[in-house]
Amino acid sequence: MKSIISYITEILKGIWTLLTGMKVTAKYFFTPWKHVTQQYPENRKTLKIAERFRGEVIMPHNENNEHKCTGCGICEINCPNGSIEIITKSLILEDGKKKRAIDQHIYHLGMCTFCNLCVKACPTGAIVMGQNFEHAVWDRSTLTKVLNQPGSKIMEGVKD
Amino acid sequence: MAFNIYDFTTLTKSIHEGLSSQFSPTATLAIEWTIVGLAYLLFVALFGLFLVYAERKVCAAFQQRMGPMRVGPWGLLQTIADFIKLLMKELIMPKNADKFLYNLAPFIVIIVSFLVISVIPFAPGLATFDFDIGIFFVTAVSSVGVIGILLAGWSSNNKYSLIGAMRSGAQIVSYELSVGLSLITMIILAGTMQISGIVEGQRDMWFIFKGHVPAIIAFFVFIIAGTAETNRGPFDLAEAESELTAGFHTEYSGIKFAFFFLAEYINLFIVAAMATTVFLGGWMPLHFGEFESFNQIMDLMPGLFWFFFKVLGVIFLMMWFKWTFPRLRVDQILNLEWKYLLPINLFNILLMAAVVLFGLHF
Amino acid sequence: MDELREVMITTDEIKTDEYLINMGPQHPSTHGVLRLLVQLEGEIVHNVQPHIGYIHSGIEKMAESLSYPQIGHLTDRMDYLSAHQNNEAVALCVENALQVEVPDRVKYIRTIMSELSRLASHQLWWCVMGMDMGALTTFFYGLRDREDILDIFEETCGARLTVNYSIPGGLMFDIHPNFQRDVKAFIKKFKTKLPEYDRLLSGNVIFTERTKGVGFLSKEDAIAYGVTGPTGRASGFACDLRKHRPYSAYDKVNFKEILSDVGDTYARYQVRMAEMWESMSIIEQLIDNIPEGDYAVKMKGVVKLPEGEFYQRVETARGEFGVFIVSDGKKNPYRVKFRSPGFSNLFAINHIAKGWKIADLVAIMSTFDLVIPDIDR
Question: Does B294 contact chain A (CB < 8 Å)?
Fold first, then answer.
């Protein structure tokens, strides 16, 4: 008799645990408007990306097409993957002295691991992390970018 | 042609008479069979696609997702797009597969599903066959489907498939018993095995209410065993994605895979339709003995609506199971059948017999 | 004698063949490119042989040519679910070698981040465990709650998974102004969601039947195999480094080391579930008391470790993670060795899964919480 009672209580307890599980899923089924997924390309405008989000390395330019990069190459040294190549040129100043300046700041987006070490190391704050994360391209070669814009020059007063 | 949404007998009769007046009896029969066959094909294709869509939307709602949203408004055309994709896919056959059996298996599975559907009454006058032993036919034919699964697993020459097929064999053979016994319980109450007779017997009150306790127990046993027979979660051991990748249909691609996939959903429909027919009154509207006005309002809705309303309700219940519970292990699935469902079922038959004998039902 | 031979022959004839089955490298429940060569008799597992190396990325070798701050970001990619703890281990190792004392603020933030990371990892483990058992809905509930933590990471660290937040000398950034508010909101929300996990899965009769009494690992075996983390603690092996070798701010908080002496699959499950509560309590104790101060100490441009060997271990979500650095005084290490918890844990699987069924093997593997890049490195 005892075994029969325990047999039945076992079944009822089992069914009860199943019902509590079903209650949880039912709660979400009957509130379908509370879905957590988003329709991605449609919600681009309302998409919130954190300001620190590391999407790519960019070099901000001001309205006069000026940047802060001196071409010191510290970012190149700090990059673990060789994503950054610095090509410098020498400028001859008015007083006849030679000065190193950036010719091309080459950034290989395809090799970058977004570790932020270059940005952290940059002594002048010339490069920062951008929030753009849509990097899909048809041609791999377009992932190699030149960060300083053509014809740009260094801002007044930025020194290494 | 007299079309009446409440009763299709006049429609079918007028079609039959119209054809008989034009053609010889043999030709009439041939044309009628063709019409019926095409109607079933169309129904299965459309309802199967709808069920796949419904399953995806229902599971999405359970999981706080939105489900397919891209193809068509609210993703309505998604399953059609999937079906076209499956049609166009390459049919891959493993090198050492048993070619004949490998090709045969999906057809066995799908043909069996079609056979069972043929006895289900959708509405008054909308059923192809009406045997004296309708219920017996359903249980007998539906157990042939496992042969297709076993063949698929064996002929694919893949160990995962073989394990899946063997699991499925053990599982379906066991659960046949529970399905059969729970139906027998209701046959005791109905007093007939003829499906039209069973539906007719529920004109005043559905059997699940009429038979009260034993009928409700039989209903849940039937739903559990039916879920197990369709190889759906939590009894999807034959597929068991996380264990056997895809179980018995691992090696199938393209349209052959689509057959297995479609068969799963037709079987889902069959189980729900059988539950509806035997327990929930088939196409009969909801009636309560004395409330005449209530009964009349219920009668306003046609039988076809009632049938699909109940079928979809049962299907929803089964989807709810599937998307909530973890999968059972192979020994537990047999334990559940032999240690729990079978004794409960046998006891339930006795209970029902007593209820009928002493007239304790409503 | 002849009789015996006859018996032997007949049993030989009855005996069915064992067969080998390859689970992986592409298999839904190996969670990556792990290959298990499983010897089966029918459904019963006779032998499991893990084959690793499909995602070997040579991080230890790469580290030899990188500077110390650069090594940290590679450890994100090993056990990507415990990225914070891995970063912290490298940072602590370098700081200890240089004998740099970081400010208390850094210690507190590191501890909070590590615990958030552990929570996120356990959430992912929970939902994947449910999925392996066939309850697919758990997957989305777990990921839903993990998303909140990843949003916090994104806001403060700038990345969701490969955070690279703890660097030698401190932190990459200071915490975001919203950090404390968001963490508190998350804890409040997750405290209502965690009981839901229990209702959905832990109490479920199918789940308990499948996990209780399955896949035992004794304390002695756990120690012998070097099984650490929640997997080891479920066998009664008190191996929580946060308690026994406190680092960062763990000596300033009260928390229980979750131990169980059962050692079955269900115990491993329960230990992780209880650890989520403990992690939340640790975060609650620290979040309002983050001291003011610098978020990093000034380090030299080129970090050079003194000659010698340095070892630092931390408790990740999977167990004991160790960083061993041999330095010859240059700016690159001479040799780096990572002691990854997953590697030691994985090789106990043969011992545990023997004699159980395939479905149990999947459940056991789930409770090991394997991350394959952590094993292969």
Answer: no
